[in-house]
Hints:
By secondary structure, the chain is an all-alpha fold.
Amino acid sequence: RQRRVHGGNPEDSMTDTIAAAGAGAITEAIFYGLDSYKVMKQANAPFNFRLLWKGTVPLILTGSIPSFGAFFAVYLPTKRYFETSTRFSDSSSVLIASVAGGVPSSIVGVPADLIKKRLMVGASNSPTDAFVSIYRATGTSGLFLGWRANLIKDVPFVVVKMTTYEALARAYLSFFDPKRISGLDGIKGGDALTSTESAGIGFVSGAITALVTCPIDCVNTRIKSGELAKFTIAQAHVELVKREGVKALFRGLLPRTTILGLGSTVFWFWFSELKRTFSLIEKWRE
């Protein structure tokens, strides 16, 4: 029988952050090749099987782990604070926490994201080669090319993803088990789900998010590949449509939906499992 994932107090933030970083690394490792294929499609680059898993380990270590960790290090304690210490509604708490966590998470992940896109379009032969060439050409600032595009993409992305996830979680619990929405220990929404429930709801929220945020993701890829680097975000959207039509904004939608749908399933399952494992270890040590 499955056990519920317990909510938590601010003191649990470190455990949650480590669990999120670990779950993010597992998810990225599983879907790295598919994400690489998506980048090739969005950049309209020729398919190259040999590039699909290039840079997997270094880019997960320098991109996915710190990015997921940074987001949940801010998101979870912020959400819990607003849920328990203010008059803000649950949905407002999630929105505020998503924005607060999304900013540092997005910025931290820019260099690895930039390097991966350069690898997938064949502009560099290795992560090290990409890093050195970018740094020599433009210095540290060059490693953050497209950071505005990342923010414009990532912050709405996490807002849609997290508010959808929490809303679906509350709706699910309201229908099947209202007592779990707010128990004696203050558990609410997604914190009260089992690992399997988290995985199922994660799939739906991830698929919805993929569709809504596909255009900005496509533009972000073209900017970082260098093709539309001289344009602003708005100008890049217009330029891409002029060149290739509206359909260009939805290139890679199928692999993106698969990545975010199944990826969210994997992430939320492992996030719940790792949190439970850490909790058991802590109890054993006591």
